[in-house]
């Protein structure tokens, strides 16, 4: 029998704890950081599964000879601010372009111990359009309960 999963989604977190949103203004773009959390009752102390996601930088190159924009490269940090290790995470990004089209993509990775911060990066394809805004729009933390 597979181990049950405890999946913490934004819906769960809205019911349990407010989501902390950090607004960063970087020249002509806006990046949003998210904090995800959930409290699990069990034997011993309360287990708090909580992480913070923050976009630290993003970049997009213009290829003048070809007359189009590259994919957007996004650098972000994830910090485990809970008191237990989570096993896996997903984080979803929206990239808004000059023509108001929005491109949605995700990144994922393995969890880590409380108090640790890791830097990651990913790419979002914008169909050769110029990006004007990058933001984190959703996330999911997973703990495998063995």
Give an overview of the whole structure.
The chain has one domain (5-144): Sandwich (Immunoglobulin-like), CATH 2.60.40. It is 5% helix and 62% strand. It has one helix at residues 10-16, and strands at residues 5-9, 21-26, 29-40, 47-59, 62-63, 68-69, 72-80, 88-97, 102-110, 117-124, 131-144. The N and C termini lie close together (11 Å). The chain has 1 helix and 11 strands, in the order βαββββββββββ. By secondary structure, it is mostly beta strands. Mean pLDDT is 78; it is low at 1-44. The strands form 3 sheets. The chain has a 5-stranded antiparallel beta sheet. The protein has a 4-stranded antiparallel beta sheet with strand order 1-11-8-9. A two-stranded antiparallel sheet has the order 5-6.
**CATH topology annotation:** Immunoglobulin-like
Strand content is over 45%
Gyration radius, in Å: 17 Å
**N-to-C order of helices and strands:** EHEEEEEEEEEE
Give the CATH class: Mainly Beta
Strands across the major sheet, in which order? 2-3-4-7-10
Give the domain tally: 1
Bin the helical content.
under 10%
Can you count the helices?
A: 1
Low-confidence parts, pLDDT < 50 over ≥5 residues? 1-44
Mean pLDDT: 78
Q: In terms of structural class, how would the helical and strand content be classed?
A: mainly beta
**Main sheet summary:** 5 strands, antiparallel
Gross morphology is elongated
**Cα-to-Cα separation, first versus last residue:** 11 Å
| Secondary structure tally: strands | 11
Architecture, according to CATH? Sandwich
